[in-house]
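Our preliminary data section would be incomplete without showing what the modeling component actually yields. Below, a chain of 327 amino acids is followed by its predicted structure, encoded as tokens that our downstream tools consume directly.
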Amino acid sequence: MEDSLMLGVEGVKKTILHGGTSDRPRFITGTKVTFHFRTRLCDDDRTVIDDSKKVGVPMEVVIGNMFKLDVWETLLMSMRIGEVAEFWCDVIHTGLYPMVAKSLRRIAEGKDPVDWHIHTCGMANMFAYHTLGYDDLDELQKEPQPLYFVLELLKVEQPSEYAREPWALSDEERLKAVPLLHGQGNKLFKMGRYQDAINKYKEAIICVKNVQTKEKAWDAPWLKLEKMAHTLTLNYCQCLLRMDEYYEVIEHTTDIINQHPGVMKAYFLRAKAHMEVWNEAEARQDFQKVLDLDPGMRKAVKKELQVLNMRMEEKREEDRQKYKGMF
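Predicted structure:
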């Protein structure tokens, strides 16, 4: 059993729990690494907060693609196939873990793995976050602490040995892919193939967000990518409206509005979603905000308000008939 500070890596201590096979693999830019992980707190009980084996799906990273938690690349490159090792990592390496864990947990819960409101820059976190949705992760984000990572290296594939998915592309390749995916999504939307369009918009958003994590939050390049992501997300929401997924539309548009309250289309789509779920006051408020931001939308808003008035009158009549004679 090896128990030592990793050579040349500050704040990391490695303990080999099970030796691997053969020589250490070759790790170059583009190498895909598949592994299981378990994350423990540094308390007396070594409390487990995440475990990929319980989820049943191993983790994958591509070396050199600046994964949000870059220390994992360093740890994995010290391992052999089949090796299981425990790494103690100081807070200089664990600050971004709560956001990574949030994405992984959403996948495990069957939620949308495309978490398009995550930014890895600390300044973005201050502005964009109130909660990550998990109490233990909120606590870790407020007060970063050392963590134990138990990693099991399952497979190492060289760049020529696997088909590259959008998340495995270089930044240049991702940015080239975005307009193509956007165009394909728009075409599918016009054809009424909304789920296929959603898949294209998701791929494009993944590409944009992966590139955006390397930029400094709120600087010009970051804001340009943010605008691209918003356009794609709003197109995605248009598909959701056609698929009657109104509450998801409200969730995504609200996220955009909370961070960037001047995006008129977000208010318009949210108003339409509110209208479909009988949230009359919220719909009227959002339609008014649309007019405040863009008076040129007056004709479109007037048409939507006529529909809202008609739908609310129908609902009131339906309610009157339902409760008629009950009292």
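The longest strand covers residues 147-157. Residues 103 and 115 are 6 Å apart (CA to CA). Preliminary results of this kind motivate Aim 1 of the renewal.
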